[in-house]
TrEMBL record:
It comes from Senna tora. The keyword 4Fe-4S does not apply. This is RNA demethylase ALKBH9B-like. InterPro entries: AlkB-like, AlkB-like_sf, ALKBH9B/ALKBH10B-like, Oxoglu/Fe-dep_dioxygenase_dom. Residues 269-366 form the Fe2OG dioxygenase domain.
Amino acid sequence: MDHQCVRSESDDPFLRIYEPSELRTAAKFLSIWKPFLSKRLCSHCTLILSDRIRSIHPEFDDEYDDHREKNDMPEPAPQICTSECKSRSIETSSQRMSWADMAQEEDMERESNHNSCNPNSVVKTAAEKPKLSREQREYIRFMNVMRKKDFEFFETVHGKPLNILEGLQLHAPVFSAAEQKRILNYVASLLDMAQRGQFKGRTNSAPQKWMRGKGRQTLQFGCCYNYAMDEDGNPPGILHEEEIDPIPDLFKVMIRRLIKWHVLPPTCVPDSCIVNIYEEGECIPPHIDNHDFIRPFCTVSFLSECKMVFGSNLKIVGPGEYDGPVAIPLPVGSVLVLNGNAANVAKHCVPPVPAKRISITFRRMDVSKRPTRYVPEPDLQGIQPLAYEVDPEKRPNGSKPNGYDRNDKNLEAYEMTRSLQWPANREQ
Ligand SMILES: O=C(O)CCC(=O)C(=O)O
């Protein structure tokens, strides 16, 4: 079944026996019930359901327009929900995934939370929900991102005082609770694929469990980074000849968000990433990111808050124990951007984490260091930042699209992220 096929259902003999007013009522009813009807369906099947409701009467389920309008990803591939649908969706999600799907999921979540308190409110909630366009929703979320860019910590470097945190930025929240959930499920699927040996070469590496402070599990995409001199005598840096899997689709959607929301500049679109999976007590030792990667680069935090420690001279006080002068908390859903002195003078590390944590580090390779078989990602070309002013003082009055003002919905959603769980049935 494809979308063409769903659209032409308005000519369906079943529908022809009903009056337009009856079809309108049916479509209204079904669109109110869609959060329930689409529960646990994959995003693609949810789209098919939306399309079908729309084919009954076009006035309803207009949220679906958002999926098409300025979609981050191409038109969904034809498919119906089968038992294999879920497992296949990870491989083909590039054709399906967009943040509009996630925004919809967030709405659904909010509604189901609300309705679980008051079963009589189903109709009222959905009917009263103000209709915001995708642009308006994105604008509100963009404006609610808090951006800290004035980190300061002075140390004496080469005999002179220097702000070693110059160039550090924290943006939060960039990914909502629903988006974090989606990303974590996606990472879980990537780990399953890694376990089944479905990735090339050194995409996946696991820590040596017997040694305290020996890291974390990683998944690398876009390039293979060698952390230390390997057994073939390769120095640390990008391995030119090593084959590796390309950046997974949902991570490309994340990258587009980072550029569009002014977190990374359009001159520095990441073309590689590392997923770090820290079990409780795991860590990353003090380091400065290799200059095979240009600046800035960034790390996105999930699952639990941890501190990143900075200092020009971080001390290793024992296996997995690090000491440094500044510790910066990284909230879940936040993005820490490293540039300038913070990336090039200060070392950083993550001391043993108090609870399971996942981070995704996005970096752009220096052109001369790209792997031999490097192919630019078509999905990551020509991304432009949204034309809104980030600095509140520079925002002209009335710059808000269609009169929508800042609200705190996202901050509430952000607070909810603290209770997110790693997919329940996974091994710890
Ligand atoms: O886990 C983090 O947030 C930091 C990861 C990091 O420093 C790295 O991947 O080089």
